[in-house]
Amino acid sequence: MSCGEWEIRxxxxxxxxxxxxxxxxxxxEDIAAHARGCQSCSRRIQAGLLLLRGxxxxxxxxxxxxxxxxxxxAREPRRALAAERKGLRVALAAAAVLLVAxxxxxxxxxxxxxxxxxxxxxxxxxxxxxxxxSVVGDWNAWDPSRDRLRDPKGDGTWExxxxxxxxxxxxYQFLIDGERWVPDPRAPLQVDDGFGGTSSVLQI
Amino acid sequence: xIGSEKxxxxxxxxxxxxxxxxxxxxxxGDRRAFEGVVRRYTPVLYSLAYxxxxxREEAEEAVQETFLRAFRALPxxxxxxxxxxxxxxxxxxxxxxxYRRERRRAALRARPLEEALxxxxxxxxxxxxxxxVERAAAERLAQEALEGLPSxxxxxxxxxxxxxxxxxxxxEILGLPEGTxxxxxxxxxxxxxxxxxxxxxxxxxx
Lengths: 204, 206
Description:
The complex is a heterodimer of chains A (about 200) and B (about 210). Chain A is about 35% helix and about 25% strand. Chain A has helices spanning about 5-20, 30-35, 40-55, 65-75, 80-100; strands at about 105-110, 120-125, 135, 155-165, 170-175, 180, 190, 200-204. In chain A, strands 3, 5, 6, 7 and 8 form a five-stranded antiparallel beta sheet that branches. A three-stranded antiparallel beta sheet of chain A has the order 1-2-4, with no helix packed on it. The radius of gyration of chain A is 26 Å and the shape is elongated. Chain B is an all-alpha fold and about 210 residues long. Chain B is built from ten helices and no strands. Chain B has helices at about 5-25, 30-55, 55-75, 85-100, 100-110, 115, 130-145, 150-160, 165-175, 180-200. Classes of the chains: A alpha+beta (about 200), B mainly alpha (about 210).
Protein backbone atom coordinates (compact mmCIF):
# COMPACT_ATOMS: atom_id res chain seq x y z
CA MET A 1 0.00 0.00 0.00
CA SER A 2 1.32 3.42 -0.78
CA CYS A 3 0.01 6.79 0.15
CA GLY A 4 1.17 9.94 -1.61
CA GLU A 5 0.89 12.03 1.53
CA TRP A 6 2.98 9.53 3.47
CA GLU A 7 5.90 9.90 1.10
CA ILE A 8 5.61 13.65 0.57
CA ARG A 9 4.67 14.95 3.99
CA UNK A 10 4.34 12.38 6.78
CA UNK A 11 7.50 10.37 6.41
CA UNK A 12 9.84 13.41 6.07
CA UNK A 13 8.18 14.89 9.17
CA UNK A 14 8.79 11.70 11.21
CA UNK A 15 12.34 11.45 9.88
CA UNK A 16 13.02 15.02 10.97
CA UNK A 17 11.73 14.25 14.47
CA UNK A 18 13.90 11.13 14.66
CA UNK A 19 16.93 13.10 13.52
CA UNK A 20 16.42 15.77 16.17
CA UNK A 21 15.24 13.37 18.87
CA UNK A 22 11.95 15.22 19.28
CA UNK A 23 8.49 13.85 20.02
CA UNK A 24 5.63 16.34 20.01
CA UNK A 25 2.28 15.54 21.60
CA UNK A 26 0.40 16.00 18.35
CA UNK A 27 1.25 16.22 14.66
CA UNK A 28 0.90 19.53 12.79
CA GLU A 29 -2.65 20.32 11.68
CA ASP A 30 -2.23 19.39 7.99
CA ILE A 31 -0.83 15.96 8.93
CA ALA A 32 -3.51 15.43 11.57
CA ALA A 33 -6.17 16.27 8.98
CA HIS A 34 -4.75 13.73 6.55
CA ALA A 35 -4.49 11.08 9.28
CA ARG A 36 -8.18 11.43 10.09
CA GLY A 37 -9.01 10.05 6.66
CA CYS A 38 -6.09 7.62 6.23
CA GLN A 39 -5.91 4.73 8.69
CA SER A 40 -2.56 3.53 7.44
CA CYS A 41 -0.87 6.89 7.99
CA SER A 42 -2.71 7.39 11.26
CA ARG A 43 -1.35 4.14 12.70
CA ARG A 44 2.15 4.80 11.48
CA ILE A 45 2.10 8.30 12.95
CA GLN A 46 0.90 6.93 16.27
CA ALA A 47 3.51 4.18 16.17
CA GLY A 48 6.25 6.68 15.30
CA LEU A 49 5.29 9.01 18.14
CA LEU A 50 5.08 6.08 20.58
CA LEU A 51 8.59 5.07 19.63
CA LEU A 52 10.01 8.58 19.73
CA ARG A 53 8.39 9.31 23.09
CA GLY A 54 9.47 5.91 24.36
CA UNK A 55 7.87 5.94 27.78
CA UNK A 56 4.45 5.11 26.33
CA UNK A 57 5.81 1.71 25.32
CA UNK A 58 6.69 0.64 28.85
CA UNK A 59 4.76 -2.45 29.79
CA UNK A 60 3.47 -2.98 33.29
CA UNK A 61 3.79 -6.55 34.53
CA UNK A 62 0.95 -8.47 36.05
CA UNK A 63 0.73 -7.10 39.62
CA UNK A 64 1.26 -10.64 40.94
CA UNK A 65 4.52 -11.20 39.10
CA UNK A 66 6.87 -9.85 41.79
CA UNK A 67 5.02 -11.94 44.35
CA UNK A 68 5.35 -15.07 42.22
CA UNK A 69 9.08 -14.44 41.81
CA UNK A 70 9.54 -14.05 45.57
CA UNK A 71 7.58 -17.24 46.17
CA UNK A 72 9.81 -19.10 43.77
CA UNK A 73 12.94 -17.73 45.45
CA ALA A 74 11.64 -18.83 48.82
CA ARG A 75 11.83 -22.41 47.56
CA GLU A 76 15.55 -22.08 46.86
CA PRO A 77 17.42 -24.15 49.41
CA ARG A 78 18.70 -22.06 52.26
CA ARG A 79 22.06 -23.71 52.23
CA ALA A 80 22.66 -22.59 48.64
CA LEU A 81 23.54 -19.10 49.79
CA ALA A 82 25.83 -20.28 52.57
CA ALA A 83 27.53 -22.95 50.51
CA GLU A 84 28.19 -20.58 47.67
CA ARG A 85 29.48 -17.97 50.04
CA LYS A 86 32.08 -20.41 51.25
CA GLY A 87 33.16 -20.94 47.68
CA LEU A 88 33.22 -17.22 47.06
CA ARG A 89 36.65 -16.56 48.51
CA VAL A 90 38.15 -19.29 46.40
CA ALA A 91 36.30 -18.10 43.33
CA LEU A 92 37.41 -14.50 43.74
CA ALA A 93 41.01 -15.43 44.34
CA ALA A 94 40.91 -17.59 41.29
CA ALA A 95 39.12 -15.15 39.01
CA ALA A 96 42.24 -13.35 37.86
CA VAL A 97 44.09 -16.59 37.39
CA LEU A 98 41.19 -17.98 35.41
CA LEU A 99 41.25 -15.12 32.95
CA VAL A 100 44.90 -15.49 32.08
CA ALA A 101 44.81 -19.25 32.23
CA UNK A 102 42.17 -19.64 29.56
CA UNK A 103 43.71 -21.56 26.78
CA UNK A 104 42.07 -23.92 24.43
CA UNK A 105 42.95 -26.35 21.76
CA UNK A 106 40.87 -27.09 18.74
CA UNK A 107 41.12 -30.24 16.71
CA UNK A 108 38.92 -31.29 13.88
CA UNK A 109 38.82 -34.32 11.70
CA UNK A 110 36.31 -35.83 9.36
CA UNK A 111 34.26 -38.97 9.57
CA UNK A 112 34.91 -41.37 6.73
CA UNK A 113 32.36 -42.74 4.30
CA UNK A 114 28.66 -42.25 4.62
CA UNK A 115 29.00 -39.65 7.32
CA UNK A 116 31.36 -37.50 5.32
CA UNK A 117 29.05 -34.56 5.75
CA UNK A 118 29.46 -34.65 9.50
CA UNK A 119 32.65 -33.49 11.11
CA UNK A 120 33.74 -34.36 14.60
CA UNK A 121 34.93 -31.33 16.46
CA UNK A 122 36.87 -31.62 19.68
CA UNK A 123 36.74 -28.48 21.78
CA UNK A 124 39.03 -28.05 24.74
CA UNK A 125 39.08 -25.22 27.25
CA UNK A 126 41.39 -24.74 30.20
CA UNK A 127 39.27 -23.25 32.98
CA UNK A 128 40.65 -24.54 36.29
CA UNK A 129 38.17 -22.80 38.61
CA UNK A 130 35.03 -23.34 36.56
CA UNK A 131 32.15 -25.32 37.99
CA UNK A 132 30.36 -25.76 34.69
CA UNK A 133 31.28 -25.04 31.10
CA SER A 134 28.93 -25.14 28.14
CA VAL A 135 29.54 -24.37 24.55
CA VAL A 136 26.81 -22.37 22.90
CA GLY A 137 26.69 -21.68 19.22
CA ASP A 138 24.75 -21.57 16.01
CA TRP A 139 24.27 -25.34 15.96
CA ASN A 140 22.51 -25.52 19.33
CA ALA A 141 20.58 -22.24 19.11
CA TRP A 142 22.85 -20.77 21.80
CA ASP A 143 21.18 -22.95 24.39
CA PRO A 144 23.57 -23.49 27.33
CA SER A 145 21.82 -26.66 28.45
CA ARG A 146 22.60 -28.67 25.32
CA ASP A 147 26.35 -29.09 24.98
CA ARG A 148 28.09 -29.22 28.32
CA LEU A 149 31.81 -29.78 28.50
CA ARG A 150 33.24 -32.36 30.88
CA ASP A 151 36.30 -32.25 33.04
CA PRO A 152 36.90 -36.00 33.54
CA LYS A 153 40.23 -35.65 35.34
CA GLY A 154 39.15 -32.71 37.45
CA ASP A 155 42.22 -30.79 36.37
CA GLY A 156 40.41 -27.89 34.74
CA THR A 157 40.70 -29.27 31.21
CA TRP A 158 37.16 -29.18 29.92
CA GLU A 159 36.30 -30.91 26.70
CA UNK A 160 33.53 -32.01 24.42
CA UNK A 161 33.27 -33.84 21.13
CA UNK A 162 30.57 -32.68 18.77
CA UNK A 163 29.45 -33.90 15.38
CA UNK A 164 28.56 -30.95 13.23
CA UNK A 165 27.47 -30.51 9.67
CA UNK A 166 30.25 -29.58 7.33
CA UNK A 167 30.33 -26.55 5.08
CA UNK A 168 28.98 -23.90 7.39
CA UNK A 169 30.70 -21.22 9.40
CA UNK A 170 29.52 -21.75 12.94
CA UNK A 171 29.83 -19.02 15.56
CA TYR A 172 30.22 -20.08 19.17
CA GLN A 173 31.30 -19.07 22.66
CA PHE A 174 31.97 -20.84 25.91
CA LEU A 175 29.73 -20.12 28.89
CA ILE A 176 31.47 -20.62 32.21
CA ASP A 177 29.38 -21.12 35.36
CA GLY A 178 26.32 -19.98 33.45
CA GLU A 179 27.39 -16.36 33.37
CA ARG A 180 30.85 -15.74 31.93
CA TRP A 181 30.91 -15.67 28.14
CA VAL A 182 34.29 -16.21 26.55
CA PRO A 183 35.40 -16.75 22.99
CA ASP A 184 37.67 -19.68 22.23
CA PRO A 185 41.16 -18.21 22.66
CA ARG A 186 42.62 -20.66 20.14
CA ALA A 187 40.04 -20.36 17.37
CA PRO A 188 41.61 -18.97 14.20
CA LEU A 189 38.71 -16.64 13.40
CA GLN A 190 36.91 -14.29 15.79
CA VAL A 191 34.00 -12.05 14.89
CA ASP A 192 31.98 -9.35 16.62
CA ASP A 193 29.11 -11.06 18.41
CA GLY A 194 26.78 -8.10 18.05
CA PHE A 195 26.68 -7.62 21.83
CA GLY A 196 29.99 -5.89 22.37
CA GLY A 197 31.94 -9.13 22.67
CA THR A 198 33.56 -11.65 20.41
CA SER A 199 32.41 -14.96 19.03
CA SER A 200 34.73 -17.58 17.66
CA VAL A 201 34.08 -19.16 14.29
CA LEU A 202 34.45 -22.79 13.31
CA GLN A 203 35.12 -23.26 9.64
CA ILE A 204 34.58 -26.91 8.86
CA UNK B 1 10.47 12.99 26.91
CA ILE B 2 13.03 11.45 29.18
CA GLY B 3 13.77 13.29 32.44
CA SER B 4 17.07 15.02 32.79
CA GLU B 5 20.15 12.89 33.00
CA LYS B 6 21.20 14.59 36.23
CA UNK B 7 17.97 13.82 38.09
CA UNK B 8 18.04 10.30 36.83
CA UNK B 9 21.59 9.76 38.11
CA UNK B 10 20.80 11.29 41.51
CA UNK B 11 17.81 8.98 41.86
CA UNK B 12 20.04 6.12 40.80
CA UNK B 13 22.51 6.82 43.56
CA UNK B 14 19.79 6.50 46.16
CA UNK B 15 18.56 3.25 44.67
CA UNK B 16 22.12 1.87 44.54
CA UNK B 17 22.46 2.40 48.27
CA UNK B 18 19.12 0.73 48.94
CA UNK B 19 20.17 -2.22 46.81
CA UNK B 20 23.46 -2.73 48.60
CA UNK B 21 21.81 -2.63 52.01
CA UNK B 22 19.25 -5.20 50.87
CA UNK B 23 21.93 -7.47 49.46
CA UNK B 24 23.99 -7.34 52.64
CA UNK B 25 20.89 -8.26 54.61
CA UNK B 26 20.11 -11.10 52.22
CA UNK B 27 23.61 -12.48 52.48
CA UNK B 28 23.36 -12.35 56.26
CA GLY B 29 20.40 -14.66 55.93
CA ASP B 30 17.39 -12.33 55.81
CA ARG B 31 15.68 -13.49 52.66
CA ARG B 32 12.86 -11.00 53.05
CA ALA B 33 15.34 -8.25 52.22
CA PHE B 34 15.61 -9.55 48.67
CA GLU B 35 11.86 -9.19 48.19
CA GLY B 36 12.32 -5.43 48.10
CA VAL B 37 14.85 -5.82 45.31
CA VAL B 38 12.43 -8.06 43.43
CA ARG B 39 9.63 -5.51 43.79
CA ARG B 40 11.89 -2.66 42.68
CA TYR B 41 13.18 -4.33 39.54
CA THR B 42 10.30 -6.52 38.39
CA PRO B 43 8.57 -3.71 36.44
CA VAL B 44 11.70 -2.57 34.58
CA LEU B 45 12.93 -6.07 33.85
CA TYR B 46 9.50 -7.13 32.64
CA SER B 47 9.19 -4.13 30.36
CA LEU B 48 12.69 -4.69 29.00
CA ALA B 49 12.01 -8.38 28.39
CA TYR B 50 8.64 -7.69 26.83
CA UNK B 51 10.06 -5.23 24.34
CA UNK B 52 13.01 -7.46 23.50
CA UNK B 53 11.05 -10.70 23.19
CA UNK B 54 7.65 -9.40 22.17
CA UNK B 55 5.52 -11.83 24.16
CA ARG B 56 4.04 -11.70 27.65
CA GLU B 57 4.69 -15.26 28.78
CA GLU B 58 8.29 -15.24 27.62
CA ALA B 59 8.83 -11.91 29.34
CA GLU B 60 7.44 -13.24 32.63
CA GLU B 61 9.65 -16.28 32.36
CA ALA B 62 12.64 -14.02 31.71
CA VAL B 63 11.95 -12.06 34.89
CA GLN B 64 11.65 -15.26 36.94
CA GLU B 65 14.83 -16.69 35.49
CA THR B 66 16.79 -13.45 35.92
CA PHE B 67 15.98 -13.19 39.62
CA LEU B 68 16.65 -16.87 40.17
CA ARG B 69 20.07 -16.58 38.53
CA ALA B 70 20.83 -13.38 40.40
CA PHE B 71 19.81 -14.89 43.72
CA ARG B 72 21.93 -17.97 43.17
CA ALA B 73 24.89 -15.85 42.09
CA LEU B 74 24.45 -13.32 44.89
CA PRO B 75 27.33 -14.67 46.99
CA UNK B 76 29.58 -13.96 44.05
CA UNK B 77 28.40 -10.37 43.77
CA UNK B 78 31.13 -8.02 44.93
CA UNK B 79 29.65 -5.46 47.29
CA UNK B 80 31.88 -2.67 46.00
CA UNK B 81 30.08 -2.82 42.67
CA UNK B 82 26.71 -1.43 41.77
CA UNK B 83 23.92 -3.94 41.75
CA UNK B 84 21.64 -2.89 38.95
CA UNK B 85 24.11 -3.09 36.03
CA UNK B 86 24.95 -6.59 37.25
CA UNK B 87 21.27 -7.53 37.37
CA UNK B 88 20.65 -6.12 33.90
CA UNK B 89 23.66 -8.02 32.58
CA UNK B 90 22.20 -11.26 33.93
CA UNK B 91 18.86 -10.39 32.34
CA UNK B 92 20.45 -9.58 28.99
CA UNK B 93 22.54 -12.76 29.00
CA UNK B 94 19.36 -14.72 29.42
CA UNK B 95 17.39 -12.66 26.93
CA UNK B 96 20.07 -13.08 24.30
CA UNK B 97 19.73 -16.82 24.50
CA UNK B 98 16.04 -16.28 23.76
CA TYR B 99 16.43 -14.11 20.69
CA ARG B 100 15.14 -16.45 18.09
CA ARG B 101 14.19 -14.17 15.34
CA GLU B 102 12.10 -16.54 13.28
CA ARG B 103 10.23 -18.03 16.17
CA ARG B 104 9.56 -14.67 17.70
CA ARG B 105 8.34 -13.22 14.45
CA ALA B 106 6.05 -16.12 13.86
CA ALA B 107 4.69 -15.73 17.38
CA LEU B 108 4.17 -12.06 16.82
CA ARG B 109 2.21 -12.59 13.66
CA ALA B 110 0.07 -15.18 15.32
CA ARG B 111 -0.51 -13.07 18.41
CA PRO B 112 -4.04 -11.81 18.58
CA LEU B 113 -4.68 -8.13 18.81
CA GLU B 114 -6.40 -8.84 22.13
CA GLU B 115 -3.02 -9.33 23.80
CA ALA B 116 -1.88 -5.90 22.71
CA LEU B 117 -5.08 -4.53 24.19
CA UNK B 118 -4.73 -6.37 27.46
CA UNK B 119 -2.39 -4.23 29.50
CA UNK B 120 -2.45 -5.28 33.15
CA UNK B 121 -2.37 -2.30 35.43
CA UNK B 122 -3.33 0.17 32.72
CA UNK B 123 -6.53 2.09 33.19
CA UNK B 124 -9.30 0.49 31.21
CA UNK B 125 -11.50 3.39 30.32
CA UNK B 126 -13.81 1.51 28.02
CA UNK B 127 -15.04 4.90 26.87
CA UNK B 128 -13.34 4.78 23.50
CA UNK B 129 -13.07 1.19 22.25
CA UNK B 130 -12.29 2.26 18.69
CA UNK B 131 -9.49 4.47 19.98
CA UNK B 132 -8.11 1.59 22.04
CA VAL B 133 -8.09 -0.70 19.03
CA GLU B 134 -6.22 1.93 17.05
CA ARG B 135 -3.74 2.45 19.85
CA ALA B 136 -3.14 -1.30 20.09
CA ALA B 137 -2.60 -1.51 16.34
CA ALA B 138 -0.09 1.35 16.53
CA GLU B 139 1.68 -0.30 19.44
CA ARG B 140 1.94 -3.54 17.55
CA LEU B 141 3.37 -1.69 14.57
CA ALA B 142 5.91 -0.04 16.87
CA GLN B 143 6.83 -3.44 18.33
CA GLU B 144 7.32 -4.91 14.87
CA ALA B 145 9.57 -2.02 13.94
CA LEU B 146 11.57 -2.59 17.15
CA GLU B 147 11.97 -6.29 16.42
CA GLY B 148 13.34 -5.41 13.01
CA LEU B 149 16.26 -3.53 14.57
CA PRO B 150 19.65 -5.22 14.93
CA SER B 151 19.80 -6.57 18.48
CA UNK B 152 22.32 -4.14 19.85
CA UNK B 153 20.41 -1.13 18.54
CA UNK B 154 17.26 -2.60 20.03
CA UNK B 155 18.86 -3.06 23.42
CA UNK B 156 20.18 0.51 23.46
CA UNK B 157 16.85 1.89 22.30
CA UNK B 158 14.77 -0.01 24.84
CA UNK B 159 17.05 0.73 27.79
CA UNK B 160 17.48 4.42 27.03
CA UNK B 161 14.39 5.56 25.20
CA UNK B 162 11.71 3.30 26.66
CA UNK B 163 13.05 2.48 30.12
CA UNK B 164 14.55 5.93 30.49
CA UNK B 165 17.96 4.89 31.83
CA UNK B 166 20.74 7.46 31.60
CA UNK B 167 23.20 7.15 28.73
CA UNK B 168 25.93 6.41 31.27
CA UNK B 169 23.93 3.54 32.76
CA UNK B 170 23.19 2.04 29.36
CA UNK B 171 26.87 2.27 28.49
CA GLU B 172 27.78 0.49 31.72
CA ILE B 173 25.19 -2.26 31.29
CA LEU B 174 26.10 -3.01 27.69
CA GLY B 175 29.82 -2.41 28.06
CA LEU B 176 29.85 0.21 25.33
CA PRO B 177 31.41 3.69 25.27
CA GLU B 178 28.87 6.48 25.90
CA GLY B 179 29.50 7.90 22.42
CA THR B 180 28.56 4.56 20.89
CA UNK B 181 25.34 4.44 22.90
CA UNK B 182 24.42 7.91 21.63
CA UNK B 183 25.18 7.06 18.03
CA UNK B 184 23.26 3.75 18.26
CA UNK B 185 20.31 5.65 19.65
CA UNK B 186 20.41 8.23 16.90
CA UNK B 187 20.80 5.64 14.16
CA UNK B 188 18.22 3.37 15.82
CA UNK B 189 15.58 6.11 15.69
CA UNK B 190 16.19 6.62 11.97
CA UNK B 191 16.02 2.86 11.34
CA UNK B 192 12.75 2.61 13.24
CA UNK B 193 11.09 5.27 11.12
CA UNK B 194 12.42 3.53 8.02
CA UNK B 195 10.90 0.26 9.31
CA UNK B 196 7.53 1.96 9.76
CA UNK B 197 7.72 3.06 6.15
CA UNK B 198 8.42 -0.52 5.06
CA UNK B 199 5.59 -1.91 7.11
CA UNK B 200 3.01 -0.21 4.97
CA UNK B 201 0.59 -3.09 5.04
CA UNK B 202 -0.67 -3.41 8.56
CA UNK B 203 -3.50 -5.83 8.29
CA UNK B 204 -7.01 -5.99 6.97
CA UNK B 205 -8.74 -2.68 6.76
CA UNK B 206 -5.47 -0.77 6.53
